[in-house]
Amino acid sequence: MARRRLGGFLKATAMSPYEALELARILRPAIRDERVLAAIASVPRERFVPKRERERAYANVALPIGAGQTISQPLVVARMLEILALKATDRVLDVGTGSGYHAALLSLLVDRVFTVERHPELTERAERTLTDLGIDNVSFKVGDGWEGWPEESPFDAINVAAAMGEEPPHSLEEQLADQGRMVAPVGAKEQHLVLTERAGDRLRRRRLEAVQFVPLVRGTER
Questions:
Q1: Tell me, what CATH number does 125's domain have?
Q2: Which domain holds residue 66?
Q3: Structure confidence by residue, pLDDT tens digits, 32-64
Q4: Domain count for the chain
Q5: Which residues are catalytic?
């Protein structure tokens, strides 16, 4: 999936699956960011789910991917991308690689993606899938998502694809660049997306819509 810039958009040169185009059409009433919709239409979601789930790959639902993890509902993924207001020059941290689908979408929208996952088997599978698709601007790390990737910080945006406690961890907020944005599901019993924005030394948080994610577990699996 070699990438090319066209009119401010990053699009796949390979033929997009009809189902991906249809998924983007279904999401259009809820998602206004045309770059996000173009990315959704370009990435073959069936490549990121187990074979037994491929008949449901383009359903607007979360699906199991193994290791107790899921590939998130497409609407939620698209909404998180939209909230981040991504630019083509951004460097982005993706916490919770999972299947690699979120990282693949980010790769079409920004310059560089750094993705962290605690399960080595998921990291290996995701890296293999993105390599097969020709995506070459994503770096992978097996590690503790709570700690992020400090040696590659600061980041223009941080996407967290697993639920935290009552507030985002300071360790991730500290890795935001000036004018950086982070979106994360926050809450214990009730989760909401929270947008954190940095302006110099000041952080501003906004609680958005309700969501449901698997928890962000500390440490790594060996």
A1: 3.40.50.150
A2: 3-211
A3: 999 999 999 999 999 999 999 999 999 999 999
A4: 1
A5: 72
